[in-house]
Amino acid sequence: MPKNIANPDQTIRHDWQLEQVESLYALPFADLMFRAQTLHRANFDPNVVQVSTLLSIKTGGCAEDCGYCPQSAHHESAVKATPLMPLERVLENATKAKESGASRFCMGAAWRNLKDRDLERIAAMVSGVKDLGLETCVTLGMLEGHQATRLKEAGLDYYNHNLDTSPEFYGDVISTRTYQDRLDTLDHVRDANINVCSGGIVGMGENPEDRAGLLMALANLPAHPQSVPINLLVQVEGTPMAEMETLDPLDFVRTIAVARLMMPKSMVRLSAGREHMSDELQAMTFLAGANSIFYGEKLLTTDNPDTAHDQKLFARLGINILQDSDAGEHASAA
């Protein structure tokens, strides 16, 4: 095994090689979980989870052809396109999210890219949510440098733009946007001093090498994403990926654990797909190093466990909800 493969000294690395990542995936399950939990405890309180709420502020009609997405205008499953949500409704939803325990409010628009004509309306939403005392996050497609700067001025904390999968498998998922387009958007976000939220989706028919390649692409960015959402494909009828073979749940847990080992100080978010996960599987992902979830009954257009169910699960596991925006304050002293 290559030296320092499990990153025991918590070195932040950006030089991962594919064979090293594959070696982590190949560890005996108990060894992988032990290493991931040990490193997780060195950086975070293992019994605290950060909770975010995601709201679709503009649904459907997207020009992209992402094979997993029901919001794409290219697919039979295409959801009805709606206009951009009024500011008042966004703030109403953000207030409810905060009352339910969320500390971060994410707003998503089904756009290929943010257009300047919509920039000020989005900036007003960001400022309004920020004034409620919530962390702010948006996902709006591709972004230009001046747009990122304006969103930062409005109070944006995080910008979500996933890499989705490995560079090698990417062409099997989407043809209307290149991998470099995604990397360029992340460059603009970092240059504007906005926190990066970037992860991917597993269970799309990729092979194990592609799952390793996704995590390598994320960990080898100039800076690790502050938030790394790991999504399990939600198979939506009418999308090209509706009939994909279900991923082995333990392979999903392994992906969470390897993400934790490679990006030890990032928040690793258990994202889409939780509606179809057992409580036991979700508990195992927390043990593997996941310490953030999306809260609420909808993730854009797909189902998510209701908040009451999540609260019961947290109570069973002795997990507390992060109450402030500084996750670093909750780092374990162990």
The rough form would be described as globular
Uncertain segments: 1-7, 298-303, 325-334
By secondary-structure content and strand pairing, the structural class works out as alpha/beta
The average pLDDT score comes to 87
The number of helical elements comes to 10
Question: What's the order of the H and E elements?
Answer: HHEHEHEHEHEEHEHEHEEEHE
Q: Helix fraction?
A: 25-40%
Number of beta-strand segments:
12
Strand content: 15-25%
Largest sheet: 10 strands, parallel
**Whole-number radius of gyration?**
19 Å
Instruction: State the end-to-end CA separation.
Output: 27 Å
Structural commentary:
Residues 1-7, 298-303 and 325-334 have low confidence and may be disordered. The chain has helices at 18-25, 29-43, 87-99, 116-131, 145-154, 179-191, 208-219, 249-262, 279-288, 307-317; strands spanning 48-58, 104-109, 135-139, 158-160, 195-197, 200-202, 227-232, 267-270, 292-295, 298-299, 302-303, 320-321. With 334 residues, the protein is of the alpha/beta class.
